[in-house]
Design brief:
113 residues; mainly alpha; DNA polymerase, domain 1; 2 domains; 6 helices; elongated
């Protein structure tokens, strides 16, 4: 977070002298929001890396591996396998293999290549 705050501070420090205080406030708020989003992405990446999670390939994963995905039971794993191959992960939803809510839960944990 220190890096992000220094980026915001540097951005504000580089503001032209002609900017009014309102513009500086708005620019600072925008830079802070960007830094906050970037920091969250970095933290999530570190967390995922520490947990050792890797995306499951829905075209090659076995039934047991698919069942480790959030909300995927034996029957859904069988449906995923039966409807292979997939050119994109969204085909799970488009082909009606799993409902949209279920897809939204596992989307970040799956891949096709």
């Amino acid at each position: 977070m220190t890096v992000s705050l220094s980026v915001v501070a540097a951005g504000v420090g580089c503001a032209p002298a002609s900017q009014n205080p309102q513009a500086i406030r708005q620019n600072t708020a925008a830079a802070t929001e960007t830094a906050k989003q970037d920091a969250k992405a970095v933290v999530q990446g570190v967390y995922d890396g520490l947990r050792g999670e890797k995306a499951v390939n829905i075209n090659t994963a076995g039934k047991l591996e698919l069942e480790k995905l959030p909300g995927i039971d034996s029957a859904r794993a069988d449906r995923i396998i039966a409807n292979r191959p997939y050119s994109s992960t969204e085909e799970l939803r488009k082909k009606g293999v799993i409902p949209t809510a279920e897809y939204n839960r596992i989307e970040a944990h799956i891949k096709t290549r």
